[in-house]
TrEMBL record:
The lineage of its organism: Bacteria, Pseudomonadati, Pseudomonadota, Betaproteobacteria, Burkholderiales. It comes from Paraburkholderia translucens. This is GntR family transcriptional regulator. InterPro entries: GntR_C, TF_FadR/GntR_C, Tscrpt_reg_HTH_GntR, WH-like_DNA-bd_sf, WH_DNA-bd_sf. Residues 32-99 form the HTH gntR-type domain. Residues 1-30 are annotated as: Disordered. Residues 19-28 have a biased composition (Polar residues). The keyword Metal-binding does not apply. PANTHER family: TRANSCRIPTIONAL REGULATOR, GNTR FAMILY, UXU OPERON TRANSCRIPTIONAL REGULATOR.
């Protein structure tokens, strides 16, 4: 009979697999579960390009690359397979996803559905000081890029603003299930962005779309805020598909 995916992760007992039965593999010195650490290290490997998108590797190679014992690595791989980040091939190894059209569309569809609801709440409940602070940072960055061009420091601030704005919108719902799902989705978003080529015009367009969202929220207009979010994601999807 053919082996299952579970079988592909179950190897004969050896020095490598002996760690599976050791209680020391359950948690690290800081108290974190090793399977959670393995999960994060696998994603970091993808984001840092140590594991190229579409890469096909063996379990042994992952153990050596990430410095994680076999047992917690297997747990992390099963979680990531369920999330669609990779596929476990019986007898062959692990293949990481190579972002394409369908994943891009699915990711932005998910973001649009969640954030269109969340932005309405944010527009009505967010602290005015928080909104104005985000606006001020966006305006300062727009001014800096227009005067100096795009540099590494600006790109770091772009990423920080992206995270700050969308995190604030999502957390305004006060729903831990949504927050957890959105955090997982953000991993897909980072994978999609690995190959993107940012230029000053593209970054400025994104920042100005953010400013339109924030302006609608500052004047407490949830309809305008939802329309601005919808337009932002439609434009972002086109940019990620290379349609600009």
């Amino acid at each position: 009979m053919g082996r299952t995916r579970k079988d592909a992760l179950a190897e004969p007992a050896s020095a490598e697999t002996a760690v599976e039965s050791s209680p020391d593999t359950e948690t690290a010195s800081g108290g974190a579960r090793l399977s959670d650490i393995a999960y994060e290290r696998i994603l970091e490997g993808l984001f840092e390009r140590k594991l190229p998108a579409g890469a096909f590797v063996s379990q042994k190679e992952l153990v050596q690359l990430l410095g994680i014992p076999v047992a917690p690595l297997r747990d992390a791989l099963r979680v990531l397979e369920a999330e669609g980040v990779l596929t476990i091939h019986p007898r062959s190894g692990i293949q990481f996803i190579k972002p394409g059209l369908e994943l891009t569309r699915a990711t932005y569809q998910f973001r649009s559905i969640i954030e269109r609801a969340a932005i309405r709440v944010f527009a009505e409940t967010a602290e005015e000081e928080s909104i104005r602070s985000l606006e001020k940072r966006h305006l300062a960055l727009v001014s800096a890029i227009e005067k100096q061009g795009l540099n590494a420091r600006h790109l770091t601030e772009v990423e920080a603003l992206e995270t700050s704005l969308h995190h604030a919108v999502i957390t305004s719902l006060g729903n831990p299930l949504v927050e957890n799902s959105y955090r997982r989705m953000h991993n897909y978003l980072k994978l999609l962005r690995l190959e993107r080529k940012l230029t000053a015009p593209l970054v400025l367009r994104t920042l100005k779309e953010h400013l339109a969202i924030l302006e609608a929220c500052r004047v407490r207009d949830p309809d305008a805020a939802e329309a601005a979010v919808t337009a932002h994601f439609a434009a972002a999807l086109q940019r990620n598909l290379g349609m600009y």
